[in-house]
Write a structure and sequence with these properties.
Shape: globular
Strand content: 5-15%
CATH class: Alpha Beta
Distance between the termini: 31 Å
Number of strands: 5
Helix content: 40-55%
Number of helices: 6
CATH architecture: Alpha-Beta Complex
């Protein structure tokens, strides 16, 4: 926010910050049974929100294990969510929404991924389809590692 204000003051072009919304219907929280102190939980949420890579996720997970013991599934989901969100924002994904056994991935118009990459991946993977609105749909049923892993794999394949 401060960087944007400084850039505006200098008369520099301000790039709009693009956020991805991920709605995969998974439990992504820090249960009070795991970390009792609300202030400490809020600090950990902030720390996890800054995770942008698998290495960062693994580091935070080790810290949590050292301080509080093995994280429950909801915390593991939260850590994986942070990495997926960072990847989605890098590729200018607008939203990821789960609807039943399907997951829709909608991209911003100026995504760095060209349409040829998407079409090439659809031809390679029969579980993907592109609807007329430009939403990429993938099946979530029976995916090894869950919905987050399925989306992550598709985004990594598109990025390659």
């Amino acid at each position: 926010m401060m960087e944007r204000a400084v850039a505006e003051r200098k008369g520099e072009a301000v790039v709009a910050e693009r956020r991805a919304t991920l709605n995969l219907g998974q439990d992504i929280r820090i249960p009070p049974e795991y970390i009792e102190s609300e202030n400490l939980r809020l600090r950990i949420y902030k720390r996890i929100a800054g995770v942008t890579s698998e290495a960062g996720r693994d580091e935070v997970r080790r810290e949590l294990e050292d301080r509080f013991g093995p994280p429950p599934p909801a915390v593991v989901n939260l850590l994986n969510y942070a990495v997926l969100k960072a990847l989605a924002e890098k590729l200018l994904v607008a939203s990821v929404d789960r609807r039943g056994d399907q997951i829709g991935v909608k991209f911003y118009d100026d995504t760095p991924l060209g349409p040829e990459r998407v079409v090439k991946l659809i031809r390679k993977r029969r579980d993907l389809r592109l609807d007329p609105a430009g939403v990429l749909w993938l099946g979530a049923k029976g995916t090894q590692g869950g919905a987050m892993e399925a989306v992550r794999n598709v985004l990594l394949q598109l990025q390659a």
